[in-house]
Amino acid sequence: MTLTSTRSVDRYPTRVIGEPGLIERSDPTVWSSSPGPVDAATLASHDAKGYSIDQAVLSKHEVEAYWQELVRLTGDPGLRADERVIIEKESQEIRSIFEVHRISPLIAELIRDPRILDRARHLLGSEVYVHQSRVNFMPGFQGKGFYWHSDFETWHAEDGMPAPRAVSMSLALTDNYPFNGGLMVMPGSHRTFVPCVGETPADHYKESLKEQEIGVPSRENITRLAAQHGIDQFTGEAGSALWFDSNIMHGSGNNITPFPRSNIFVVFNSVENCLQDPFAAPRPRPPFIASRDFTPLARAPRV
Question: What cofactors does this protein use (predicted)?
């Protein structure tokens, strides 16, 4: 399947002139009411908060195997020059490796593991494909955070994702403490779409993946959402996973501790929510950032 050349009615306009009003979400958060791998109480909590945590997805042995895979990837001199590798502006350290499930066979197998794939299908109520995958690195002392944002705002504006029928999984490969740059979310904020101000420049992704300036909410709206919903932080041992809605407001601070924080990040999108033309950008971002291969994922064979 390939990218459609049409665009549906824009129910979530963004990248506008002047201060826009907030838009109440018109789409579900949990798209399935049928029994599945996620129990009813967790589904209800995910629907209300916009996120849920799956403790101990990976065993300690599996965590070590994936950690060694990250060490292998970052130590590959040929990979560093690849456009899918994002380098920090100041430290020149690797910040992210995109499309990692196409680079690493081990991670390709992981995203098709029933423990992960079946949960994504259940939350989205359909077959799914990988919209985006990457590994994120936040080294000790110098790891840079991500400013407050909604992923769906970017995916809608720059990739042409029609609706927030996507869910992200952040799988921790290091322990997440309250003090080493752990991801913060505003529970319940996923029910409000926050339009952003400013026209999207051509090839905006080249700068935004390092430091985003266009497509970030105003301080007034961040303050309003934080006052209304509060802020939760994802903490937990390596091997645990945070699942969060595409429209939830989230961000992370810098890591000035000696303890690194790294994770495997995968975005699952419903095959019924395939990308169209961008809603607020001159052209789509490259496929390694926003895949246009909508082939449904199949379960990894059991060994």
Answer: Fe(2+)
Question: Cα(241)–Cα(263) distance, rounded to whole angstroms?
Answer: 9
- Closest Cα partner for 30 from 51, 12, 55? 51
105-112 average pLDDT score: 96
Surface-to-core class of residue 172, CB atoms within 10 Å of its CB (0-12 exposed, 13-18 middle, 19+ buried): buried
Q: Which of 128, 123, 124, 66 is nearest to 100 (CA)?
A: 66
Checking if the pLDDT of 5 tops 60, the result is no
Q: Give yes or no for residue 1 having a pLDDT over 60.
A: no
* 39-57: burial string, b at 16+ Cβ within 10 Å, e else: eeebbebbbebbbbbbeeb
68: helix, coil or strand? helix
SS3 assignment, position 235: coil
Helix (H/G/I), strand (E/B), else coil: 73:
helix
Report the predicted TM-score, pTM, of the whole model to 2 decimal places: 0.93
Average predicted confidence (pLDDT) for the chain: 91
CB of 226 within 8 A of CB of 27?
no
- Within 10 Å of residue 293's Cβ, how many Cβ atoms? 12
Question: Beta strands 250-252 and 146-149: pairing type?
Answer: antiparallel
Q: Residue 67, CB half-sphere, CA atoms under 13 Å: how many? A: 16
In the predicted model, is pLDDT for residue 134 greater than 50? yes
Side by side, the strands of the sheet bearing 94-98 are 51-54, 241-245, 166-172, 261-270, 128-138, 94-98, 85-87
Is the model more confident about 182 or about 145? 182
Please state, for a pLDDT cut of 70, what percent of the chain lies above it.
93
| pLDDT score recorded for residue 214 | 75
CA 276 to CA 217: how far, in whole Å? 24
| DSSP letter assigned to residue 264 | E
Percent of the chain beyond pLDDT 90?
69
With 0-12 CB in 10 A as exposed, 13-18 as middle and 19+ as buried, what is 89? exposed
